[in-house]
Amino acid sequence: MISDVNPSMISNMKMVSWISVVLVLLVQITNVSSVVDYWSEDYDTAKNCKSEDLIIEIKQNKTQGFCEEEVGDLSDEKVFQNCKLNMAKTLGSLCRSTTVEQAGELLYCKNNMQTVCCARNYNCTKTWDTISERFVDKAISFLKDQDKFLAEEKKKGYASCHSLNSSLDASICQQDCTKYEESDFAKKCKNDEGYFKCCVRRDKANCHECRFCCTLLMCTLRIGGNETYTAFSAYEMHANTTLQDSKDENENKAKEDFYLPSHMYKQPDYRCLNPDSNEDPTKWGAYNPNQFAIALSKKEQEKVTTYPFNNRFLNFEDPEVLKYMTGKNKTQKWREVFGYDFASKQGDSGDVLKNCIKAESSKFAKKCKKRGGLFKCCVAK
User: Fold this and answer.
1) Which domain holds residue 338?
2) Fewer beta carbons below 10 Å: N end or C end of the chain?
3) pLDDT band at residue 128, thresholds of 50, 70 and 90?
4) Is residue 64 part of a domain?
5) Who has greater pLDDT, 137 or 262?
């Protein structure tokens, strides 16, 4: 019950927002995921090209917004979903410094087989203070009613979800995956000459005692030449070898979350764990999402890059990790854990800028220039 929430847990949830960092060798913490199903509406012929003038203005940068193009008829569910998915990836990149506040209005227009979909009036969350203020609410929701929280998570398209409390052992979800190898989804995938995969996602609801895992069923098929397509949760295979994902809006959320790029600081972790990466299930590493999605066989899956487990990586919910990362030699620890070349306490950015200037004469910069590259120094706060 919520009355059992320890005040120290709430304090730990607020975490650290004081580090400003600079990368000389650009290392980006990204995850193919995001937070919402941005545009859940179905294609509507009445709305097709209804706002053509606005679309033109957006493409000409006269109106705030962005567009993506897709070859095919938007009335085809797969084409429409792909167009929205590409837009969501773009939106995730535009708001990568914080997160998406509003996805904006969806506009689209098809002309023969060349189609375009756009969004206007989107908003990114302005400050990290806003994100931090909402951070505790998610943890309280989990602690108040775990079953309800996990039921809502499962509705996004996951086959199963389990509470782990404060443990990192997600083997209960891997056991589900073993069972799902005999599921109707897996059998249908095999009958369609596809490769069945079961993704084990391990995450937390913003507190140490709020950890959980979920399973996501995937089927990757070759649909022509070297082109592959990965379907999630439910799909239909038509006689002309085209795929159509489930029209259930909720089932498509897990798919979109899997693909959308975003930082993972104070955001969900949608990566898939590799159960073969370590005998200890609390130390399973995470697959490279893009490589995992296109793997067409067990052999290809075994070659997918796996990022080793590091208990300190974005795990500030753990009181011990928080204490370690904010204790003595904290800047050195941030460089070590996150791959940064320099880190300093937020405030005067003079030290960061001086480090960038110094880095222009580093061996890395000289080697970059010698190979005809452009050296860049990225500062993030």
Assistant:
1) 2-27+317-380
2) N
3) confident
4) yes
5) 137
Dihedral (Cα; 211, 217, 223, 226), 10-degree rounding = 40
In a domain, 368, yes or no: yes
pLDDT in tens, 71-125: 877 777 778 878 888 888 888 888 877 888 888 899 999 877 778 999 999 998 8
| 236 and 93 within one domain | no
Residues 203 and 60 placed together within one structural domain of the fold:
no
Which three-class secondary structure state does DSSP give residue 39?
Answer: coil
Rounded distance between C-alpha atoms, residue 355 and residue 140, angstroms: 41
- pLDDT score, position 261: 56
Tell which of 261, 278, 307 closes a domain. 307
Half-sphere exposure of 21 (CA within 13 A, CB side): 21
Beta carbons within 10 angstroms of residue 350's beta carbon: 9
Neighbours of 160 (CB within 10 A): 20
- Mean of the per-residue pLDDT values for the chain? 82
Q: Which of 124, 150, 175 is at the close of a domain?
A: 124
CA 315 – CA 321 distance, rounded (Å): 7
As for how many domains the chain has, the answer is: 3
Do 277 and 206 sit in the same domain of this protein?
yes
Evaluate if residue 24 carries a pLDDT over 60. no
Amino acid identity, residue 318? D
Q: In this prediction, what percent of the chain has a pLDDT beyond 70?
A: 82
- With a cut of 90, say whether residue 215 has pLDDT above it: yes
Confidence of residue 343 (pLDDT cuts 50, 70, 90): confident
Structure confidence at residue 250 as a pLDDT band (50, 70, 90): low
pLDDT at 187: 93
Contact of 147 with 154, CB cutoff 8 Å: no
Tokens of 312: 């300190």
